[in-house]
Amino acid sequence: MSDYSYFCGIDLAKNHFSLHAVGVEARGGAYYWTRTLNKLGHNARIMAVKYVVPYRTKGKNDLNDAVAICEASQRPSTRFVPIKSPEQQAILSVHRMREHWVREHTALINRMRALLSEFGLIIPVGRSSLMKQVPLMLEDAENELPLLARTVIADAYHHLDELNQRIVDIEQVFDSFAKVSANVQRVMKVRGIKPQTATAILTSIGNGSQFDESRDFLARLSTKAIFDGRKTSLRPDNQTRRPILTNTISSRRKDRDCQPWRQAR
């Protein structure tokens, strides 16, 4: 049997997908299908959507997308996405659920504060202030908070308390994973890097082989990065960027507070 090679573009969808001709466009299910195709002996690779769009010459549909993917996969300038393992995707799922609950938590706090202000009940900014004062307001029978509004806000407060506990519990997952992962412990040796940030880095970039230079990783964390007069083509990764920036800001605040001239004052 003679050796041969071929290209195949796949446009993934929820219940079916179109084939042309194996390049895969980065979208839901891409990692699973790429791993599955590789197990069958193919050399499937994932590419970002922005590399596919220039090769779509007709209207957007499944078949035309598959043709464009096939064309893009053959171009030497196309960058391919490292294939994540199921374990990497599992940790990223934990990060995404935490992000979802934090957003819901913040939105609920703002909603409760706004509703209470409609009845002249003002709560200072901050979660701790709200958690302390809302029970007092609900128990105060002399304020102008109607029974119906009191009931709704009480339900929202209980839901907020549940979200607080969920966020605490899910952060313990990062701590537990850090204890058994040598790679996470290695990343945590960098000053200011904690389990949440370390797991986000490792599950997002893997071993970093997709970066030609270390500054390309920096560009991934930046919303706009220009090096040596050239703008990088990497798209910012908020999943990794957010915890790193949070920890960096926290570390700088600690340094500022520990400066000798501040202590002397």
What's the layout of helices and strands?
Elements: E1 9-11, E2 18-20, E3 23-25, H1 30-39, E4 45-47, H2 49-52, H3 62-73, E5 80-81, H4 86-117, H5 127-139, H6 147-180, H7 182-187, H8 195-205, H9 214-221, E6 226-227, E7 230-231, H10 238-257, H11 260-264
Parallel strand pairs: 1-3, 3-4
Antiparallel strand pairs: 1-2, 4-5, 6-7
Helix pairs in contact: 4-6, 4-8, 5-6, 6-8, 8-10
Structure report:
This protein is of the alpha/beta class. It has three domains: 9-81, no CATH class; 86-180; 195-264, no CATH class. The chain contains eleven helices and seven strands. It has helices at residues 30-39, 49-52, 62-73, 86-117, 127-139, 147-180, 182-187, 195-205, 214-221, 238-257, 260-264; strands at 9-11, 18-20, 23-25, 45-47, 80-81, 226-227, 230-231. The strands form two sheets. A five-stranded mixed β-sheet has the order 2-1-3-4-5. Strand 1 (9-11) and strand 2 form a beta hairpin. Helix 5 (127-139) runs antiparallel to helix 6 (147-180) and helix 6 (147-180) crosses helix 8. The longest helix is centred in the middle third of the chain and has 34 residues, at 147-180. It is elongated and about 75 Å long. The N and C termini lie far apart (82 Å).
